[in-house]
Structures are given as C-alpha cells and as structure tokens.
Design brief:
Length: about 140
Amino acid sequence: MIAGSLWHPFDESPKWLPEVDVAVLEHRFASHGRDYVMIIEDSLSSNRGQHELVSTDCVRADCETCAGNEIWPKSWGHAFTDYERWTTAKEPDGDVRGTNWSLAYPGIRAIRNSAQAAEWSRKLGKQKYETTLEADRFFCD
C-alpha cells in the first residue's frame, strides 16, 4: 500500500498495536475511495478489542492470495467460503475461508527507503510511505 503521511505503521501507529498475532477481519478501500481501511481484532495487548486502522490518501493497494496453485483446485466452490456450509458438506479437503478472518503474521511492516513511495511522492508533491500487510491468507502491498 502506498499511503499518505497521516498514518505510518512504525512511526505513527498506536503504541499498543502488536506487531503480529492480530486478526484481520476486513481490509478494503473506504467507500469514498481515498483511504485504505483495516479492521483488526487484538486479544493480546492492553487495548483488546476491534479497531479500525486507516491509511489516508492511499494511491495504490495490491493484494494477493497466499493460497498456492495446489490449494485453489481443491478449494473451489462456495462450501469453502462459509464454515457451516463446509461442515454440512462433510468437511471436504481444501482451504476453508469461511472463518472470515486472517491471522496477521508477520503483520504490518513499514518499507523503508521505498522506491515506489519515492516515485509517488515525486509525482504528487506529497510525502508517501509504503507498508505491507501479510497474513496467513493474503499479502497486500
């Protein structure tokens, strides 16, 4: 993700935010299309609960599944997107995504000296930063 200067995972993030082991419940562009929103749930820090993290002025967000080519053919179909449906289908072999959350590991990382962020900063005349979010099911940058 290439985002603006109002939020940066290492420099501006809340001090309670663990580096790893938070649940990513949702991640998407905000409805207005400018900011990138992550809904997380933390059960380890002193600030337990669900939290919304917003990367403001996000100009780019790429997301890729972590499921390999060997997993996709076995996990095709709607039974894998709903845990109850998967259970009713007698738990077929494959990647069950119906838990509707992902474990953030290794989590949110700041990319220092990012060539992409430098290019966007040059184009826009505004300071930009690059971060990545890696979870057990996806990788976003």
